[in-house]
Specification:
Helix content is about 75%, strand content about 0%. The chain is mainly alpha-helical. The longest helix has 29 residues. It is globular. Pfam families: CitMHS.
Length: about 375
C-alpha cells in the first residue's frame, strides 16, 4: 500500500514538474498498447531534429554563461534615458536575439535583467507590461528563422523546404508583429511617461560567472564555432552526428555546465510525440479521421492545437497528417500566441516574474492573455488576407 502511495506521489510530482512531457509520455505509452513495439519504431524518431536541437542548446547555453547576452543587455540598458526607451530596448533586443538563440534562451537571459533594471529604475508598475511584451517579442521574432524555435527546426527537417523559403513564409507575420509591438509600447509610453531615477551600472539577476564589463574571447570562441556548425547543419552542409560530437566535446573541454543546462525535458517530449504520432499513423481508422480533420485546415488546426498542448507538440502531431507545410508552419508559429501554454517559452517569463513578484501573477496573467490574444487575432487576419 505504501509503495502505491509513493508511486502516486512521484507521478504527481512528475506531472507538476513538466505537464507537457508527462502528457506526451502517457499518449506514447497508450499508443504502444494499440501498436506493440516492433522494428517500425526505429523510423518514427527524427534524430536529425533531436541532434540539432541538442547542439543548439549547448551552444546557446555556453554563450549565455560566457556573459555575451548579459553584457549586450547591460550595454543597451545603460544607454536608455526613459521608461519607454528602456522597455522598447529590452523588447527589441529580445525580438532580434531570439532569431539566433531561440525564444526560450532569449527569455532566460533577458527577463532577469529586465526585472532588475525596471526595479532599480523605479518602474515596477510597468514591469508586467514589459515582460509580457518581451515574451511576445521572443515568440514572434523567433518564428522568422530556421533556428529561432524548436518547431521551425523540426518542420525544416521534415518538410524539405529551404531556409530561404521558411524565412519568406514567416517574414510578413514577424514584421507585422514587430510593428504592433512598437505601437503597443508607444501607446503605453504616451499613457505613462516617467523618467529614470537611476540607471543601474550592475544589475541583479545576471549570471554570476559572467564578467561585469567584458568577457574573455577564449571563453566565447568555442561556442561561436559550435553555433556556426549548427547553421551549417541547418543548411545540410555539416552532418548532424558531427555537430553533436562537437557539442559534447566542447562542453567537456570548456564548460560541463553547458550540458547540464540543456532542456532534456523538451528533447524527451519530442521523442514521446514522435512515438505517439508514428503509432497513430499506423491505426488506419484513426489516421483517416485525423487526416480528414486536418485536410485543408492545417493552419487553423495548428493554431487550435497549440493553444491546448503548445506549439512544439502541435507541430509534431499535425505534421503526421498533412503535407501543407507552409500552412502548418504559419499555424504553429502564430499559434504560439494566445494562451500561456501555447508556447512553452511563455512559461519561462511567467515563472520568473511569479517568483520575483508573486503579487503581480494574476495581473500579469490577465495582461499577457489579452495582449497575446490581440496579437493572435491580428496575425490570423493577416493569414486570411495572404491566403
Amino acid at each position: 500500500m505504501r509503495s502505491l502511495r509513493d508511486a502516486a506521489w512521484r507521478a504527481r510530482d512528475f506531472f507538476r514538474r513538466d505537464a507537457v512531457l508527462a502528457i506526451a509520455c502517457v499518449l506514447a505509452a497508450a499508443s504502444c498498447v494499440a501498436v506493440p513495439p516492433d522494428a517500425g519504431y526505429a523510423d518514427y524518431i527524427d534524430w536529425r531534429t533531436i541532434g540539432l536541437l541538442f547542439s543548439l542548446m549547448v551552444a546557446t547555453s555556453g554563450l549565455a554563461r560566457a556573459g555575451v547576452l548579459a553584457r549586450a543587455c547591460r550595454a543597451l540598458v545603460r544607454a536608455c534615458k526613459s521608461g519607454g526607451v528602456l522597455i522598447a530596448a529590452l523588447v527589441g533586443l529580445t525580438f532580434f536575439v531570439s532569431m539566433v538563440v531561440t525564444n526560450d534562451v532569449a527569455l532566460v537571459a533577458f527577463v532577469p535583467l529586465a526585472l532588475a533594471a525596471l526595479r532599480e529604475a523605479g518602474l515596477v508598475r510597468r514591469l508586467a507590461f514589459a515582460i509580457a511584451c518581451m515574451t511576445v517579442a521572443a515568440n514572434v521574432g523567433s518564428m522568422l528563422t530556421p533556428i529561432g524555435n524548436p518547431q521551425n527546426i523540426y518542420l525544416l527537417s521534415v518538410s524539405g523546404m529551404s531556409a530561404v523559403e521558411l524565412v519568406g513564409i514567416m517574414a510578413p507575420y514577424s514584421a507585422a508583429a514587430f510593428v504592433l509591438l512598437a505601437a503597443a509600447i508607444g501607446i503605453a509610453e504616451l499613457r505613462d511617461r516617467k523618467r529614470f531615477k537611476h540607471i543601474p551600472s550592475q544589475m541583479a539577476g545576471v549570471n554570476p560567472k559572467a564578467p561585469q564589463e567584458s568577457f574573455a574571447l577564449r571563453d566565447v570562441l568555442p561556442w561561436i564555432a559550435l553555433f556556426v556548425m549548427c547553421l551549417l547543419c541547418v543548411a545540410r552542409i555539416a552532418p548532424v552526428w558531427l555537430v553533436v560530437a562537437a557539442a559534447i566535446a566542447l562542453a567537456l573541454a570548456f564548460d560541463m555546465s553547458a550540458l547540464r543546462h540543456v532542456d532534456y525535458a523538451l528533447l524527451f517530449t519530442f521523442v514521446a510525440f514522435f512515438v505517439f504520432v508514428g503509432n497513430v499513423a499506423r491505426i488506419e481508422v484513426v489516421r483517416e479521421a485525423v487526416a480528414a480533420l486536418v485536410y485543408g485546415r492545417a493552419l487553423l488546426v495548428g493554431v487550435v492545437a497549440s493553444q491546448i498542448i503548445s506549439n512544439v507538440p502541435a507541430a509534431i502531431l499535425v505534421s503526421g497528417f498533412t503535407t501543407d507545410w507552409p500552412a502548418l508552419l504559419v499555424g504553429v508559429n502564430i499559434g504560439g500566441l494566445g494562451t500561456l501554454i501555447a508556447s512553452m517559452a511563455s512559461l519561462i517569463s511567467y515563472k520568473q516574474l511569479a517568483v520575483a513578484y508573486p503579487e503581480l501573477k494574476t495581473y500579469y496573467f490577465r495582461l499577457f492573455t489579452g495582449l497575446n490574444c490581440a496579437f493572435l487575432a491580428a496575425l490570423l487576419l493577416l493569414a486570411a488576407a495572404i491566403a
